[in-house]
Amino acid sequence: MKNIKLVVLDMAGTTVDEDNVVYKTVQKVINDKGFNVSLDEVLAHGAGKEKHQAITDVLKACTDATDIDTIADEAFANFKPTLKFTYMQLKVKTFPGVKEMMENLRNNGVYVVLNTGYDRKTASSLLLKLGWETGRDIDGLVTADDVSNGRPQPDMIYKAMNICGITEPQEVLKAGDSTIDIEEGKNANCGLTIGVLTGAQNETQLKTATPDYILPSLATLNEVLKA
């Protein structure tokens, strides 16, 4: 097994169970503009991406809209206030066994950094609801606000490496619930890429990105690293 020193974990659907509320909100703000896209379509074309990009890509793939840039701008302007209202009423939790897995990694000298296509304000609100703190529960948080290029470009992984003083991408594992997470890890030349089945995409979809492993959840990640 590769010598992994840093594990970079996606948030929603991977470490954070928020019942796809973000993608349901993406669906809502698009359909509020007069469309009828399904949640499956949103997940297929928008999962893991910075949310303005997700809205744009869903519009391109699933509608006959002609002025996509304007519609995407208008939908995205509605996205943050709609999500904020939804989050106020939302109960956020992690998946069973994931917190214990993260603690085990950190106790064994492996850094754990969360990365996400969310903006920093949204990501921070999720951490607050979970009661997680950087330095105590995780070693870092990298959001779409922190880099020039979002997924599938490797910028967020490089930022996580910089936070933890890791210079070799082969010492990094990237895990997520969408193909774009896997593509991000491969573009960064990570030593391992892991797909998980707790979130946006199913096994057939994840296999198209050829991850090294597909797991039922992150709870069994330590078993992979020990193999």
UniProtKB/TrEMBL annotation:
Give the source's domain of life in one word: Bacteria
In Gene Ontology terms, what is one molecular function of this protein? phosphoglycolate phosphatase activity
Which organism's genome codes for this protein? Answer: Cyclobacterium marinum (strain ATCC 25205 / DSM 745 / LMG 13164 / NCIMB 1802) (Flectobacillus marinus)
A single cellular component GO annotation: cytosol
The GO biological-process annotations, alphabetized, read as: DNA repair
User: Which PANTHER family would you find in this protein's record?
Assistant: PHOSPHOGLYCOLATE PHOSPHATASE, PHOSPHONOACETALDEHYDE HYDROLASE
Looking at the keywords, is Cytoplasm present?
no
Keywords, in A-Z order = Hydrolase
Q: Which NCBIfam families match?
A: HAD-SF-IA-v1, PhnX-like
Q: What is this protein called?
A: Phosphonatase-like hydrolase
Q: Gene3D superfamilies given for it?
A: HAD superfamily/HAD-like (3.40.50.1000), Putative phosphatase, domain 2 (1.10.150.240)
